[in-house]
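Recall that a protein's primary structure is simply its ordered list of amino acids. Everything else, from secondary elements to tertiary packing, is in principle encoded there. The following example makes that idea concrete.
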Amino acid sequence: MGKLEGKTAIVTGSGRGIGRSIAVKLASEGANVVVNDLDADPAQAVVDEIVAAGGRAAMCAGNVTAPDFGERFVATATSEFGGLDIVINNAGYTWDTVIQKMGDDQWDAILDVHLKAPFQILRAAQPVISAAAKAEKAQGVRRNRKVVNISSIAGLYGNPGQANYSAAKAGLVGLTRTLAKEWGRYNVNVNAVAFGFIETRLTEVAADGGATIDIEGREIRVGINPQLLAAMNATIPLGRPGTPDEAAGSVVMFTYPESDYVSGQILVTGGGYEG
C-alpha cells in the first residue's frame, strides 16, 4: 500500500516536465491522478504510462485559463474517482521582457496562467472539499486533504525581465497563506513550493536563437543562453540545476501523512540558492 492509497489528485500541466514527474510519483504512491496538459497527446501519454505501471489515471486536457476549466477539472476527479483530496497547481510558462517593453497582453497572460487559474481551480474545488469535510466530521472521521501551489524564487525575490512572472508567483504565495487560514477548518493543508533553477524544456540551452513554445497560436521564446546558464550554476551551492524528479519530490512530500500538521509554508527548492 502506498502512502496515498485511495486519494484522488488533480495536477495541472502534468503532460510534461515537472508536472509529469509529480503525476507519476503520486500514482506510484497509490493516488488516482487526473492529468492535464494544454494538448491532449502528452496528457494521454502520461495517463497511459501510469496505467501501464498499475496505477489509475484520467485525462482532462485544455487550457487552465479557460473560464470553465476549474469546474471541468474538479468534475473529472469526482466523476472518475468519486472525490478530491489533492490539488497541485503546477501549469505555467514564462514570457519575459523588461517592464518598459511589456504589453498588457504579456502581463495578463502570465498572471492568468500562474495566479488566476489556480484561484479558479481552488474556488471550484471548495464545495467538494467542504461537503466531504462536513460529512466526515459528522461521522467522527478526520481526513486531511492537500493543496500544493507551485511558486518560484522569482516570486520571493524578483528576477530581472520577469515583472509579470514574479508578480504572479508572489501572488500565489499570498493565496497559499490565505487558504491555509480559510481551509484549516476543513483539515486541508495548503503549502507552496518555490522552485529555483530546474531543468525543463523552458530552461534548456537556447541554441540558434532559441526554441519556442506554442500557446494557443502565440509563439513564446524559451531557453537560456549558455553564458547565463554557467553563471546560474556558479551561484547555486549544489553547483547544478535540479531535475524534474527532484522538483516533484519536494511537492509530493507535502501530500504525505507526515505533513498533516504543516500548512501555510513556502518551501524553497533551489539547491541552496535563494535569490
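The helical segments are 17-28, 40-52, 69-81, 104-138, 153-157, 163-182, 226-235, 244-252. The CA atoms of residues 206 and 225 lie 5 Å apart.
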